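Practice problem. Given the sequence and the SMILES for S-adenosylmethionine, write out the predicted structure.
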Amino acid sequence: METIKTSDYQALQIYLRDACGILLRDAARGLAQRQLRSVLDNYQLASIEDLLERLGKPGRSGLKEAVIDAVTMSESRWFGETSVFALLAELVLPDIARRAPGKRVSIWSAACTTGQEPYSIAMVVNEFRDKNPGSVAGTRILATDTSRSALEVARRAHYEIGPDEAGVTAERKERFFRPVDKGVWRVRPDIRSLVEFRELNLLQRTLPGKFDVVVCQNTLVYYSAEKRKAILARFHAALNPGGYLIPGSSELADDMPELYEIIECPNGTAYRKK
Ligand SMILES: C[S@@+](CC[C@H](N)C(=O)[O-])C[C@H]1O[C@@H](n2cnc3c(N)ncnc32)[C@H](O)[C@@H]1O
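Answer key:
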């Protein structure tokens, strides 16, 4: 694929903003170009100009969704943003255990991509439970995303784990994974059974249930202020009283301070439903 022309990139930015509420930054041009290459190949389109033309026609058969997937998807990492997992282990789980000892904690991983985030959460809850017997009874995690292909990978739970995945220590590998092939590991069934994967678009009004914790990292950043506000309001509605929203550092939950008690910790900021 040739380099995207400035005028085509601007047209793509306008399409994504107006049709999907997605903000494609100027600086993301190179990345968008790489991510869209397979969409062009799959739909036999020669250029972004052709893509925009096809998006304007009826009967697009998933093309719009494929474009959204491509521009909002980036690799997910095990124990991604350290602050999210530290907040969970050091603030949120201890508080829930104090308020309701022995409770089963329900958690929503709201844009789970290929599963690393919800499985990491399940592992952290298990570690917490082992260190604090009687604190929580375990967890049930709902992991949602719009991307069907990402959810398929997540359900399969086979991953290449290289030495750069610092969060997956030798101890965690031993405890939570079993080797499948050279460098390939599968999440063990006891962890897999804690996570249910479901297709869900955060822009739609459906609430998938009530939760003690909602985790959303590296996703809202793609959306306009208006869409972000609507999604954050949905997270608020999905939380049990006193439940926690744990956003990634780019998720800007400060958009609605009146709805949450803001808890600043050395490891990041958590938001407790008022
Ligand atoms: C960068 S990934 C974040 C992955 C994960 N939360 C993490 O930090 O490791 C963004 C994910 O958001 C998903 N996504 C984007 N818009 C969405 C929407 N409207 N509803 C649900 N998921 C969405 C994409 O499919 C993609 O999997």
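Check your answer against the key. The first helix runs from residue 6 to 20.
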